[in-house]
Write a structure and sequence with these properties.
Rossmann fold, 12 helices, 2 domains, alpha/beta, 15% strand
């Protein structure tokens, strides 16, 4: 079931599995163990269901049984935009563990149904090819790589795997209702459609992925946390990918704002943390920092036409400006 390229990568690195004890992550736990992949666990308790305490306790037992480290975080979130806040909270937690504990790969249990649900959600919002395809088997972030070994597998296959082995897992009842947008799309659209047309949809995704490679933006990384996206076709996709590597997932509104700024030849700050500067040939994408810069440094940036919005980070990071001459 596991993707061979992803499996190869996981066998040579330190791995953290994002765990919930639901169908997907529980099946992935046992599949990784059977494949000889070493990994530890991280789980988030959102404190919205009484059952979540049992899930965390069972996860601790499972980690102890298989001699694995487990990291647990308890959070309290608002109800107005729960799905978005929950996603942000868990990615912040997982990223923090990877950085502090030296994990190279964050393993996520997204499967094919998730990939198709994401496609439909983005289609409904009005998205381009990059956003529609969204989930990739391997996705580089600044401090770690996201690995999704189950993207070619349907959820029903994972359920069958667990039932046949009589392995314990939990069912989040909120996923079976239309309370959240994703649950609504799953129940009304994606699951019935995949039950009829799975093989065709899978083949379509393969064709789309091949087309996306031909449209892939050119991104350079001359120094840590500094990304240069070549101007022209696919530049917004490139900015989007660079922002992801810096830990910021752009919304449609942010992508539109970025496109307007770049078209006007100005820069913008996205999410209060990422600076996007418009150069003549390349777009600079860096963390956003305000800094009092030396006059000599500012003059050197001006001569190289480095966008003003990125200069604060370059100065704070002690960047070697000579590395950027070939891009400007």
């Amino acid at each position: 079931m596991l993707s061979a390229p992803v499996l190869h990568k996981l066998k040579s690195g330190r791995n953290l599995l994002a765990f919930s004890h639901g169908v997907d992550s529980t099946a992935l736990f046992y599949l990784l163990d059977e494949a000889g992949v070493k990994f530890d666990l991280a789980i988030v308790d959102y404190n919205v269901r009484a059952q979540s305490k049992d899930e965390v306790a069972s996860a601790r037992d499972l980690a102890a049984k298989f001699n694995k480290q487990i990291y647990v975080k308890s959070v309290q979130l608002g109800e107005s935009n729960f799905e978005h806040e929950a996603r942000a909270a868990r990615y912040e937690f997982f990223g923090q563990i990877c950085r502090e504990r030296g994990y190279e790969n964050l393993i996520l249990a997204h499967q094919f149904d998730d990939k198709f649900e994401w496609f439909l959600m983005q289609l409904g919002r009005g998205a381009g090819l990059s956003e529609l395809l969204g989930m990739q088997e391997l996705e580089a972030r600044e401090d770690y790589v996201i690995a999704r070994p189950l993207l070619g597998v349907r959820k029903c296959e994972l359920e069958r795997f667990l039932r046949e082995r009589n392995l314990k897992y939990f069912t989040d009842e909120t996923n079976l209702t239309g309370r959240f947008k994703r649950g609504f799309i799953r129940a009304k659209f994606s699951e019935p459609f995949l039950n009829e047309y799975f093989s065709g949809v899978k083949k379509s995704f393969e064709f789309l992925a091949a087309d996306a490679l031909n449209l892939a933006p050119e991104i350079s990384n001359p120094s840590p946390k500094i990304y240069l996206v070549k101007r022209g076709r696919g530049e917004i996709r490139g900015v989007d990918q660079a922002c992801k590597r810096l830990g910021l997932v752009l919304s449609s509104a942010q992508r539109n704002e970025c496109a307007r700024c770049l078209e006007n030849g100005t820069g913008c700050v996205l999410g209060g943390k990422v600076a996007v500067g418009a150069g003549k040939y390349f777009i600079f994408v860096t963390p956003y920092i305000k800094a009092a810069m030396e006059k000599k440094f500012k003059e050197a940036c001006r001569q190289l036409a480095i966008p003003p919005i990125n200069r604060g980070f370059l100065f704070s990071a002690g960047a070697d400006l000579s590395k950027f001459k070939e891009f400007l």
